[in-house]
C-alpha cells in the first residue's frame, strides 16, 4: 500500500521521525515524502539509505522536494541503532559559486590538466564550507556527463545540497544532451544571474 508523508514546514528531526513512523510495518509499495528544504532531503535520504530502500529525490519547485522510498521488504526495524534522527548541518557557504569552464585545469599538458581538474573537484568535497552552486559550461559540461571521472564527487556534492548546473547549449554542442548524469540543465541567463549574485566566485 502506498503512503504519503507531508513534512513541509517541519524542522529537523520531525521529517525523519514522521518518515520512520510511516515506514513501520510497510514492506511493499511506495512511500512519498514531501519536504521544503534541501537539508530535510539529505536527512530523509540518509534514513532511506540506512534502511536499504534506495531513495530517489526531486526538486519540484523552489520550496518543494519529493522523496520516494520504494518499499520491498525494506521496512525499518525497531532495533535499528544507527542515529537516523541526527540532523545533517548545512555546510554550504552562502553565496559561494564554483565555476568550471573546462574539464582541464591550467594550460600545458591536456592529460595533466584533466588529472588536476579531477583533483580540484574532489578537493571541493573536502572543504569545510561547500559551494552553494557549481556552474559547468563550455568544456566543463563534460564533467557532469556519462564517463566523467568527477561524477561521483559531483554526486556527493549534490547529495549535500550543492546545486549543480550545466549549460544546455554546451551539452548540445558537444553532443552530450542525453548523457547528463548529475544536476540539471541551465541557460546563460541563469549562469549570469548566479555569477552576478555571488558573494565570491571560485575558479580553478
TrEMBL record:
Q: Which InterPro entries match?
A: DsrEFH-like, Se_metab_YedF, TusA-like, TusA-like_sf
User: Matching Pfam families, A to Z?
Assistant: TusA (PF01206)
Q: Which domain of life is it from?
A: Bacteria
Q: Which PROSITE patterns match?
A: UPF0033
Ranges where the UPF0033 domain occurs: 5-29
Positions in coiled-coil regions: none
NCBIfam families (UniProt xref): selenium_YedF
Q: Which PANTHER family match?
A: SULFUR CARRIER PROTEIN YEDF-RELATED
**Member of which family?**
Belongs to the sulfur carrier protein TusA family.
Q: What is this protein called?
A: Sulfurtransferase-like selenium metabolism protein YedF
Give the source species. Answer: Clostridium boliviensis
Question: In the UniProt record, what gene is named as encoding this protein?
Answer: yedF
